[in-house]
């Protein structure tokens, strides 16, 4: 029965000891320890969150740079294509121009040649005319000296003369 | 797993040896003259040990009384017994009719029979089985200054506020706790935000365990307020359980196995729980959701429920720790009961096993007490949203 009968002395001292122990530990141990633990946990959580954020940021930046690269590539392709078309056009135009110019010049040359030819022909005609007049004059003169001779002469002359 | 079966096998072999020796002893006591003399020799040796182990039982030819020895070891005492007849006297503080009286317990000269009178401040005291009485005027035929009825003194008793072995052990545990946790707290201040080190890293998981496994799930978001109380209760019970397991000075006091200590702890839990109780809690207790004519019964049931919770805590801790001490002491007592040293290895093996088990129990009981305290507080502060 003694075993299960609380003795007043031990009850008193346990109460006192526990009370003081509780006060002392609460003020000098549990408060700093628990707050330090919470503080550290918070800082760890913050660090993890920050790391996550940084990771996200990095992925975002990577994606952005990828996109930029892709855009730049597209732009380059476009520019190259444009330049090519432009060059091709230029060449085509130049060719066309050259052709038309050449054709024009040839046509002009033809005209010139024709004009020259005509002029030359006109000249020849004139010459033939004057020559004919000369011949006619000489024939006429000879005729007037010798009729027979003149006739033979005219015949000979006409035989020699070749018209171009 | 393999280790376990090996251990069980060893235990089995040990118990066989135990049974064998017990059989030999029984037959020896019954018949053999030769064996008797041999055993007497070994008994002589063990008797000497018995004096050391159970000083009360060790007076020469007195028979060994295991119950008495065990009860002496698990109950409180005014002296702190070291070995043999050596013990440390502790302050005796008595609140008598004529005020406080203090003296050293060594003035009783180890007397537990009420034969040695200590006279202080004009008052006379005797001690009988760890209790202090006002001495009778004259001694009885056994030299005791007591009036005995059925072996129980009928003398008046002063109120005993002595610093007993248990109180001294409790002071020691409080000092240890303060030293440990002040240094840990200092470490937290010094190494702010850094990883724990040394003692700090040993203590930290336990604190985190109490917070995350005991306080938070049982109390909820209001747990912060109760953390200091729960931590103090947990470490107070744990350290005293552990100190109780140490067989030599300054350990060995059966503090958490003393009903007075568990009574105080249980009462504190009861007070904390009920002072934290919110309106939902009190409505549940005083006006439960039952037909009105059931109130007379329900009120009684609820009040019993309130009291039985801390009562269960008190009895559980007391019984677990005391039982552990009794088993260990019983196993040691086997050596003196059988009066042979051959039983010693068996006893030691079993005691070792029990001590390891008690180590687990020390943690377990501290945990259960704290856990249930948190649970009770949790039910008291729980918010109901209907």
Automatic annotation (TrEMBL), chain A:
Could you name the Gene Ontology cellular component terms for this entry? Answer: endomembrane system; plasma membrane; proton-transporting ATP synthase complex
Alphabetized, the UniProt keywords read: ATP synthesis, Cell membrane, CF(0), Coiled coil, Hydrogen ion transport, Ion transport, Membrane, Transmembrane, Transmembrane helix, Transport
Where primarily located? Answer: membrane
Q: Where are the transmembrane segments?
A: 6-28
The cellular location(s) given in this protein's UniProt record come to: Cell membrane; Endomembrane system
The chain's coiled-coil residues are 37-89
Membrane topology per the entry is: Single-pass membrane protein
InterPro entries, per the entry: ATP_synth_B-like_membr_sf, ATP_synth_b/b'su_bac/chlpt, ATP_synth_F0_bsu_bac, ATP_synthase_B_chain
Q: Which GO terms describe its molecular function?
A: proton-transporting ATP synthase activity, rotational mechanism; proton-transporting ATPase activity, rotational mechanism
| CDD domains the UniProt entry points to | ATP-synt_Fo_b (cd06503)
Question: Which family would the database say this protein is a member of?
Answer: Belongs to the ATPase B chain family.
Query: How is the quaternary structure described?
Result: F-type ATPases have 2 components, F(1) - the catalytic core - and F(0) - the membrane proton channel. F(1) has five subunits: alpha(3), beta(3), gamma(1), delta(1), epsilon(1). F(0) has three main subunits: a(1), b(2) and c(10-14). The alpha and beta chains form an alternating ring which encloses part of the gamma chain. F(1) is attached to F(0) by a central stalk formed by the gamma and epsilon chains, while a peripheral stalk is formed by the delta and b chains. F-type ATPases have 2 components, F(1) - the catalytic core - and F(0) - the membrane proton channel. F(1) has five subunits: alpha(3), beta(3), gamma(1), delta(1), epsilon(1). F(0) has four main subunits: a(1), b(2) and c(10-14). The alpha and beta chains form an alternating ring which encloses part of the gamma chain. F(1) is attached to F(0) by a central stalk formed by the gamma and epsilon chains, while a peripheral stalk is formed by the delta and b chains.
Q: What does this protein do?
A: Component of the F(0) channel, it forms part of the peripheral stalk, linking F(1) to F(0). The b'-subunit is a diverged and duplicated form of b found in plants and photosynthetic bacteria.
Name the record gives this protein: ATP synthase subunit b
Q: What species does this protein belong to?
A: Solitalea longa
Gene that codes for this? atpF
UniProtKB/TrEMBL annotation, chain B:
Name of this protein? ATP synthase subunit a
Q: Where in the cell? A: Cell membrane; Membrane
Family note: Belongs to the ATPase A chain family.
A GO molecular-function annotation: proton-transporting ATP synthase activity, rotational mechanism
Q: What is the lineage of its organism?
A: Bacteria, Pseudomonadati, Bacteroidota, Sphingobacteriia, Sphingobacteriales
What's a Pfam family in this record?
A: ATP-synt_A
One Gene Ontology cellular component: plasma membrane
**Please, which domain of life does this record's source organism belong to?**
Bacteria
UniProt lists the gene as: atpB
Signal sequence bounds: 1-30
Query: Which CDD domains does the record match to this protein?
Result: ATP-synt_Fo_a_6
Chief site of localization: membrane
């Amino acid at each position: 029965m003694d075993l299960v009968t609380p003795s007043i002395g031990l009850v008193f001292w346990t109460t006192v000891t526990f009370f003081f122990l509780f006060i002392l530990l609460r003020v000098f141990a549990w408060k700093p320890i628990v707050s330090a633990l919470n503080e550290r946990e918070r800082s760890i959580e913050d660090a993890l969150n920050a790391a996550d954020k940084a990771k996200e940021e990095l992925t975002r930046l990577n994606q952005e740079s990828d996109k930029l690269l892709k855009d730049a590539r597209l732009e380059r392709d476009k520019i190259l294509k444009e330049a090519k078309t432009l060059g091709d056009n230029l060449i085509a135009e130049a060719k066309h121009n050259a052709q038309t110019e050449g054709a024009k010049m040839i046509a002009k040359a033809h005209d010139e040649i024709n004009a020259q030819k005509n002029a030359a022909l006109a000249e020849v005609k004139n010459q033939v005319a004057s020559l004919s007049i000369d011949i006619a004059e000489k024939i006429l003169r000879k005729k007037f000296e010798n009729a027979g001779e003149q006739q033979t002469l005219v015949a000979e002359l006409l035989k020699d003369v070749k018209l171009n | 797993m393999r280790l376990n079966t090996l251990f069980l096998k060893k235990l089995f072999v040990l118990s066989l040896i135990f049974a064998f020796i017990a059989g030999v002893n029984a037959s020896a006591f019954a018949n053999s003259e030769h064996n008797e003399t041999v055993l007497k020799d070994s008994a002589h040796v063990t008797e000497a040990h018995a004096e050391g182990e159970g000083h009360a039982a060790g007076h020469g030819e007195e028979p060994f009384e295991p119950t008495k020895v065990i009860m002496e070891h698990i109950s409180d005492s005014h002296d702190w017994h070291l070995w043999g007849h050596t013990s440390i006297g502790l302050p005796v503080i008595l609140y008598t009719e004529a005020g406080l009286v203090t003296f050293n317990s060594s003035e009783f000269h180890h007397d537990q029979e009420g034969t040695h009178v200590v006279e202080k401040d004009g008052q006379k005291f005797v001690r009988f089985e760890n209790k202090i009485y006002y001495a009778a005027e004259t001694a009885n035929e056994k030299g005791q200054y007591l009036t005995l009825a059925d072996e129980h003194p009928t003398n008046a008793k002063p109120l005993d506020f002595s610093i007993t072995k248990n109180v001294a052990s409790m002071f020691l545990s409080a000092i240890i706790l303060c030293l440990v946790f002040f240094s840990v707290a200092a470490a937290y201040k010094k190494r702010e935000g850094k990883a724990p080190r040394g003692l700090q890293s040993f203590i930290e998981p336990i604190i985190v365990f109490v917070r995350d496994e005991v306080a938070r799930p049982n109390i909820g978001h209001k747990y912060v307020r109760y953390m200091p109380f729960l931590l103090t209760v947990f470490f107070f019970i744990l350290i005293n359980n552990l100190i109780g397991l140490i067989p030599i000075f300054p350990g060995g006091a059966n503090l958490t196995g003393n009903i007075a200590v568990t009574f105080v702890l249980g009462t504190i839990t009861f007070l904390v729980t009920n002072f934290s109780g919110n309106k939902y809690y009190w409505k549940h207790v005083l006006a439960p959701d039952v037909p009105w004519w059931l109130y007379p019964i329900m009120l009684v049931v609820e009040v019993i429920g309130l009291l039985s919770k801390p009562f269960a805590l008190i009895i559980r801790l007391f019984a677990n720790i005391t039982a552990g001490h009794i088993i260990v002491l019983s196993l040691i007592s086997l050596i003196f009961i059988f009066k042979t040293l051959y039983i010693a290895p068996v006893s030691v093996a079993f005691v070792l096993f029990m001590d390891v088990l008690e180590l687990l129990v020390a943690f377990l009981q501290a945990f259960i007490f704290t856990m249930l305290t948190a649970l009770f507080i949790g039910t008291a502060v729980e918010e109901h949203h209907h």
